UniProtKB/TrEMBL annotation:
It comes from Blastochloris viridis. Its main location: membrane. It is a multi-pass membrane protein. The keyword Transferase does not apply. Keywords: Cell membrane, Membrane, Transmembrane, Transmembrane helix. The chain crosses the membrane at residues 12-32, 44-72, 78-95, 115-140, 152-172, 193-212. This is Amino acid efflux protein.
């Protein structure tokens, strides 16, 4: 059962979420690039997948897996190296197939299901979100709180409520600048390299991440 945190805790969490949401990450780069490449519906489908990934993280946190990961370097290593490998693959795809923010029609357009799956996958392996739920979210719940699971669940859903409207506006804005980007091939290629760089940087961050207390 969901449990609402105290007002001061909720205010601090809201501020922290605002900072996290506006910080660029692999999920943001992905749903914006899909919007530019295939339109708003594609961007929204990818965004829906990313938000669904947050639901998964919330459920795992509520069940205590966040505490397990924070306490078990071996378990955390499995996630961090798998996530790093996935992000490196995304960077490689961006450089090889111009996948960062490709605007030209793709040989085969991704279906809504595949767009959703790509958003879900990049979110589940996103180091920013993993570290957020593993090491940051539990800070807003006391270890001896009998309603800790409910509070974690509430905070996870609250984070989605904050992220959904702001990210939707990003998708709408990305679609509107598609014409300008199509007229600038050099800018598009630069964005591809930036996309690959972001993927690589987050992969490095994930590899070098450490559990609490290490």
């Amino acid at each position: 059962m969901l449990a609402v945190p105290a007002p001061d805790v909720l205010a601090a969490f809201t501020l922290a979420c605002g900072v996290l949401i506006v910080t660029p990450g692999p999920d943001m780069a992905l749903f914006l690039s899909r919007t530019v490449a295939q339109g708003r519906l594609a961007g929204l489908a990818t965004l829906a997948g990313a938000l669904s990934g947050i639901l998964v993280h919330s459920a795992l946190a509520a069940l205590g897996l966040s505490a397990l990961l924070a306490a078990s370097p071996a378990a955390f290593d499995v996630l961090k190296f798998a996530g790093a490998a996935y992000l490196v693959w995304l960077a490689f795809q961006a450089l090889r197939h111009r996948g960062g923010l490709t605007l030209e029609p793709a040989p085969a357009r991704l279906s809504t299901a595949r767009l959703y799956a790509s958003g879900l996958g990049v979110n589940l392996l996103n180091p920013k979100v993993i570290l957020f739920f593993v090491t940051f979210l539990p800070q807003f719940v006391a270890a001896d709180d009998p309603a800790a699971a409910g509070r974690l669940g509430f905070l996870g859903l609250y984070f989605i409520a904050l992220a959904a409207p702001s990210c939707t506006l990003m998708v709408l804005a990305a679609d509107r600048i598609a014409g300008w980007l199509r007229a600038s091939p050099a800018v598009m290629r630069t964005i591809d390299y930036l996309f690959a760089g972001v993927m690589g940087a987050f992969a490095l961050k994930l590899i070098t991440a450490r559990t609490v207390g290490s």
